[in-house]
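Why does residue order matter? Because the sequence determines the fold. Keep that principle in mind as you read this record.
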Amino acid sequence: MRAAIPVLILMGGSAYGQDVTEPALKAAFIFNFAKFTEWPVEVLPATGTFVMCVVGDTAVGDELERAVKDRVLAGHSMSVLREAPAGPGRVCHVLYVSGVAAGHAPQIVGPLRDLPVLTISDAQGFTEQGGIAQFFFERGQLRFSVQNESAKRAHLQISSRLLALARRQ
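Structure:
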């Protein structure tokens, strides 16, 4: 129940009487992870757009677009990209990766380890391989773990309120 608190904050009263799908729940968590994370000032200029990238999960991408539509995060408009931009001019502030084998996680996260990108996945072992947050199911509930050392290495500050809800590693 504690892990559902950020989701309920996002959805407000509209969730009552509705079945919440797994993609909608993950999208709500991703939005709240961003909401409770601070990026270095130079990464988020005052006029910049906050960019969330989704790789490998169309349904979560669709739900994340719905979740952030017409919303502002710390004064920034938000957008969702369906792939991670390559090259030195990366623009993802959040990268959600799904549908990848656990062995591929280091290839995805490795180049981002020291960059201020909040990496999230549902791939087993993701946080052990350098990712910051990982979804998992426990007793039928969507939960998450956070590797705070990885967040610190990426120069991201995760709120203690979010960390209190996570299974720490």
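Confidence is low (pLDDT under 50) at residues 1-17.
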